[in-house]
Design brief:
Number of strands: 15
Distance between the termini: 33 Å
Bound molecules: iron/sulfur cluster
Shape: globular
Strand content: 15-25%
Oligomer: single chain
Strand order of the largest sheet: 11-12-10-9-8-7-6-3-13-14-15
Helix content: 40-55%
Length: 442
């Protein structure tokens, strides 16, 4: 395969050409890849910029490309070399990618997702809006929430009926948002009751609830969650610096995070996740190092490192940051520092994804103490099997054997969701039945 690219800008011309004699699998796919690689190299040359550590893997799910090669029998070392040579990745990113692909293949084998289903339930309400947030998040209002939960219940019932009819086995339940724990205790109790009555069964191995904002939990709510079978909870510091939390609109202190964490431990949660964001306004290496040291001291089972991504709809992008944001190089250094400190403390990366406008041209990476990884997180990134996304802003995914996926998106606004959820549920049902039929015939 031969390709050449010539770029001209500002009176300069740069040409790149390559001949590949050892072809990788997938002719058309590789043709596109080679064209992109040459274009990328030419751009680097023309602009004098170093480029991205992820080379031409600009999409959200670089690990999917890893699975493409692993499915075809390539070994980890070969895959690392392919990513460096044919995709322009920096060596450390190629190693990280291949490591994560290996973990995912161990932890989420086809036997799990072929007959399995994960269920995501969205509670799109929060006590206040964080400055970086682009999730579906609306202020908690009693009446609005009551109406939403009524509609959500109907959707849950419909999904449960389809799951029972098709014999799918629910292995993961995940309640996210928003902040599900913003619900009043009685609302939460009713929701948990509905979920367990429909989905708790012999195949369910994980039941996660995001309790991201410590200002929404206390002993009672945490004990309630635990008593209804929730075995994983997220309590998210983002940063352990009070000044940073104030800037990003988190209406809580670092001490409240610690308090909620210990309350969750006392309630008996076997697995606690903590989310951190790298690249927050005004934060430098010293702040990140101190935050990570605090997390290591607390010993949650899972830690998720997000590189700050300035997304559409976030206040930080709209109004601008009140303090300088770190440059790409600095953000990348801080991410490496955080990840490697956690690695030394016994955590291993097991899922990763990228986003647009991500600090340091980096990635988001989930780390876990071995044996505590979250199956739902892997399934949703790899788009494996069927994922029922229930509620406003949720996405259902129906993965097919050959690697394609049908996405069905619910409206983010609870009022719009209430109007058109049935239409979306019908689309989901059709996709699920088609996929299961194809699987049975295949
Ligand atoms: S708690 Fe999470 S979902 Fe709610 S506003 Fe903050 S970032 Fe958004």
């Amino acid at each position: 395969m031969e390709a050449s690219v010539t770029l001209t800008a500002g009176g300069r011309t740069v040409a790149e050409q390559a001949t590949e004699t050892e072809l990788l699998e997938g002719g058309v796919r590789q043709g596109r890849r080679l064209a992109r690689l040459l274009f990328y190299r030419a751009l680097r040359e023309l602009t004098g910029r170093e480029g991205s550590p992820w080379g031409i893997l600009t999409g959200v799910r670089p690990t999917k490309v890893g699975h493409f090669f692993a499915d075809r029998g390539f070994q980890p070392r070969e895959m690392e070399a392919i990513f460096v040579r044919y995709y322009g990745l920096r060596e450390d990113k190629a190693r990280l990618l291949v490591e994560v692909v290996g973990r995912e293949r161990e932890l989420l084998p086809p036997e799990r997702w072929r007959r399995g289903a994960a269920v995501y339930v969205s509670i799109p309400f929060c006590p206040s809006r964080c400055a970086y947030c682009s999730f579906p998040s609306f202020p908690y209002q009693k009446e609005r929430v009551r109406e939403y939960l009524q509609v959500l219940r109907q959707e849950i019932e419909g999904a449960a009926e389809l799951i029972a009819r098709t014999g799918l086995e629910v292995y993961a339940l995940y309640v996210g948002g928003g902040t599900p724990t913003v619900l009043a205790e009685e609302e939460l109790a009713e929701l948990l009751e509905v979920l367990t009555s429909f989905f708790a069964g012999e195949h369910l191995v994980e039941f996660t609830v995001e309790a991201g904002r410590p200002d929404t939990v206390g002993v009672e709510k945490l004990s309630l969650l635990r008593s209804r079978g929730v075995n994983r909870v997220s309590i998210n510091p983002q940063s352990f610096h009070a000044a940073t939390l104030a800037i990003i609109g988190r209406a809580h202190s670092p001490e409240e995070v610690e308090k909620a964490y210990f309350q969750a431990r006392e309630a008996g949660f076997p697995i606690i996740n903590m989310d951190l964001i790298i690249g927050l306004p005004g934060e430098k290496e010293a702040e990140v190092a101190a935050t990570v040291a605090k997390v290591i001291e607390l010993e949650p089972e899972n830690v998720t490192l997000h590189s700050l991504a300035l997304k559409k709809g976030s206040l930080l992008l709209g109004a601008g940051s009140p303090l300088p944001l770190p440059g790409d190089e600095e953000a990348a250094r801080m991410m490496d520092l955080a990840r490697e400190s956690l690695r030394q403390a016994g955590y291993r990366p097991y899922y990763l994804y990228r986003q647009k406008r991500i600090a340091g041209l980096g990635e988001n990476v989930g780390l876990a103490r071995p044996g505590t990884e979250c199956l739902y997180n892997m399934a949703v990134i790899e788009e494996k099997g069927v994922i029922f996304g229930l509620g406003a802003g949720a996405t259902s995914k129906v993965g097919r054997e050959e690697g394609t996926v049908v996405n069905i998106f619910h409206a983010r606004d609870p009022v719009v969701y209430a109007r058109n959820w049935e239409e979306k549920a019908a689309q989901r049902e059709e996709a699920v039945i088609k996929s299961l039929r194809a699987g049975a015939e295949g």
